[in-house]
Amino acid sequence: MNVFRIQITLLAACFIFVTGKTQFAQQTTNASQAKPKSEQSQTPLPVNSLPKSQDQSLQSIPIVTPLETPPIPIVQAPQKTVPLPIIQAVRDRPSNRQTYRPNQNRYALSNYQNKTPTQRQDDKQSNQQDNNRNPQQSRNQERQRIIEQGRAAFNTACVQCHDANRSLKKRKSYSAWLTTVKRMAAMEDANVRSSDFVPIARYLESVGKPVQITDAQQGDAGDEKGDDSSDEDTAADVDLGLNNGLGFNLSSTISPLYRGSDFTNTVENPGIFVDAWISMDFDRGGAFTGKVTVCTSCHSRDQGFTVELVEATARLDLMKAFLGGCESKNCEPRLHMAVEAGRFIVPFGAIANNSHPGVSRTVTLPLMFNMGRRVFGNVGPPRQPVLPMPFSDEGINTEIQIDLPLKQSLKLDFYATNGLQDGPGGPFFVSRRYYDNNELPAYGGRVTIGGSYLKLGASAMTGDYNATGAPQRTYEIYGFDGTARYKDIVRYYFEYAIRDEDSRFGPGKDYVYGIVSELEFRLIKKVSLLGRYDTLEYRDNLGPDTTLKRFTWGFNMSLPGGSTLLINHEHWIFPDPQDDVDVIGARWVATY
Asked: What is the mean pLDDT of residues 10-28?
């Protein structure tokens, strides 16, 4: 009986010992799982491999009787934790994206998982609100930046030929302004960079209009489809090329003028004359563009009021055609090359661009470029100018422009045309024909360098007057010019030109030359004061040397709607014994 009790006691002790050791191993495992993975081994240690200090602690476990219920161990699901090196790598990971990500500061994953579902939902809603709000703010800021860039470019480049009010008073859609800017930039000696086309058009479109974009307008791109919903797209999304229907654009300048004097019979073509220019441009943003311009004329070879063809050209942008151009919106090409063929205004002197009535700042052109607006004096008609402007001719012209630092540029023109032709009434009436009288082309070129504040230029051309079969009678024309201005406040223009030719009346040379010096100063916002002094001198075999001088002063006023009124008083000084003549002139200019 005693032996039996001893056996029962030993069995109970073994059972309690084994149960206690199992419970302790489970608690040890749970405790080890609560530690970071970096502090625990890959596999749990077996019980028999515990250190001796832990093995001795097992002997102190109290012995319970079989009647006591052992505690049920609580098994918890292991927590998913991220090792600290991975969290640090996520936090320090470099990002190449430049876009703004609201409320996303690269939180550690453990912080995110410690949030309750309610907190996570609140963060999601907050992020969604920021995503809906910040793109609109970013678009408004980008649009405002583009407009400010256009304002600066307009005040430096677009007031080179006309006052700012002429453009700021007009209201056009963005696509119409973009077409206008590109057309003006293509004019001779224009200093408008291609990267400024979009900003200037945006600025002119925004004048008098809010720039804020509403929620309903986000994501639209009306201008890219060619309509007038220009507020519905951002400047950053606009392509530099035109996508406006068929690519045709019609523009016109209407400029009625009046000239009169107390000696009515001395003024050439007195009274009212409507000087009108109408142009059709073709431009779809590609390498090929075209232009046709007609004008009314009072000095044609038929001695009457006619309509003449000023321009009919096809132009090929060589950079776009053969080198792919500059497709990126942020790209600014440094080299521009183009070839135009057909009938065009020959790029001689700064006057080649200023002869357009929408650009001219005086009622009449300088004496050395003037035909049809002359004064006869008391001894008959005056002789011919150095070169009548605008001088249009048929041929081919190559343009090269290099953009220099500090917003300066160098432009070169090389052309070959039919050239001047001699005939009854002088060398200029028959030169307006659309065909040549000989097989020898005339050659010429022009170089200009400078920027918005100062620009210098030099021009030259040479050719043969006479028809095929007649002895050659060559001519050469040279000139240089300079223009200085400060914004839309003050402008100074100077030009000199000379023509020397084989004399028609014997051996030797005939010379015709002159100068023009013109200053315009803005008195108030819409009124400027203008003064001009110009000459025309003859050194030839027809008679004694003669000099014709003229003083001009007047006012230029900007009118509502963007039109301009020019009022001039001209004082003509003839060689003795001829009397001086005073002429009053007025011109109204409106461009559409």
From this structure: 57
